[in-house]
Predict the structure.
Amino acid sequence: MNFINLNCPPLPYFIVGGGCVYRPGDIHERRTIRNVFDLIYVHSGTLYLEQDPFRVELNAGQFFIITPDTPHRGSRVCQEKTTTSWVHFYTNGKYSLSDEFYPDNITRRAAPKFYYSPQNFILSLPRTGTVPEANREKLEKYLQRMNLVSFSKYTQKKSFPSSVRTPFEIQNDFIEFLQVLYAPYCYSREKESIARTLRDYLDAHYTEEISLNDLARQYSYSPSHLIRSFHQAYGASPMQYLKKLRIEHASQLLLHSDAAIQSVGEMVGLRIPSYFIRVFKQEIGITPAQYRMFYAEENGGSETP
Amino acid sequence: MNFINLNCPPLPYFIVGGGCVYRPGDIHERRTIRNVFDLIYVHSGTLYLEQDPFRVELNAGQFFIITPDTPHRGSRVCQEKTTTSWVHFYTNGKYSLSDEFYPDNITRRAAPKFYYSPQNFILSLPRTGTVPEANREKLEKYLQRMNLVSFSKYTQKKSFPSSVRTPFEIQNDFIEFLQVLYAPYCYSREKESIARTLRDYLDAHYTEEISLNDLARQYSYSPSHLIRSFHQAYGASPMQYLKKLRIEHASQLLLHSDAAIQSVGEMVGLRIPSYFIRVFKQEIGITPAQYRMFYAEENGGSETP
């Protein structure tokens, strides 16, 4: 269970952030925090943490996210001066855990049904990891901005860095911060695969007949490798993606052309009318004819705002 | 009712964004959008809009936010080529309208009760306004990134700019975008007043006896001017702010020192014990003694994560 998958909306929400400096011999407290995620990031030194079944040794640039309601504690005293930041955040939404990064990288194109209701997505955060060297300065800048309470075990004193940032700015900082944490996972998947090439091909050729076997032949990969790569990058198979793409274009044509239902199907590469209607209904919930009628009425023939 | 005040959490959530180019003689549709805010921004030309009781003429760099469920329409045809962007967003939370900017600029310091639950705040967005010249490039960059569907009245064609941004990145763009819109309102209030100076003074001198009349004398303003300025900037009076500040420091001292309750009161400038206890209870809900006991137990004597 290496990834924490937050269902959005709502977006995760920042509660408070701070810093703590440990002396050699100090140890992280044993505790359980209700309803709150606790992210710990190490600037320098090494922090030893345990949250069943994890036992981690966090060095500079590494982080760990403790899930709510789970006991955790230091597993070993610090061997040297160790400087850390922490961020408490929460979500009102559901979350789940998974072994693999849950990719949700496809921003849906704007089909009419998406104009008026939010597109849910999964934000998959690594439970622990190393922030790439190149991103640390940026990440630490956001941590600095969210640093509302600092504690030093040397002086046993708390300080409250006076913040001139407004509540909304700090939420903004937090979202940016998560973005920095999340981006490498998100993109490494896309880069290391042929998924992007494949997606561009589908975007350009969805009006034609396309089969998975043809794609496999064209790119000299096995069908299963294509499916795996595409799924890793985008969270869907190439054919699932193609289906969505076609239906989205079809829905546009239904509203912005007078083409017959059957022609619309043809124009998006779904040549068999009954199949087109079935797929459309699967995706959108109503038939193409109902869709045209419903949206044309509601929006006076155009959904352009 | 010039401001739209969103209760956060949750943060407002992006649905879809796009662009529309109007020809001379074109007019914005008459429509009502359910549950969705519709923000319109003009890049060039002029768009004429009406949403009872507003009638606006939007020029380059100006925007208008249409609230959900309210009929609106173009009030006049475009006189020249007019290029616009629009953003649909929504919130699951409540919102209200007000004539004045609702300032909520104080980021609470991290008192223990704030470690584990979100701090609600109000995000006050101007319903209409002009984006300062200096911010337009930045704002338009975010609009560009959120542009998922473009429509031109010249060609009567929709296009779907292929986005390589993930759903989370686009939410991030949207929050940044709102920040750019919101920041000038937020800060102009603070800058044009002596509020900041006053706040710094309170932060430094809260351990001393402070009265509003003394402050007024010291800064050569009337007490009511001080209250008004401070309230405009931070949404609270100076004495309300001072009270919060003192109680937050007191709560820290209760947990991290062995000082008697009475001494704690003295250390934060509340010298009369019964008054200290009353104020503490007002703010935190329990007495200082209960507080010390309760949090000391729960967090093993320390709430440092």
Remarks:
- Chain A is about 40% helix and 25% strand.
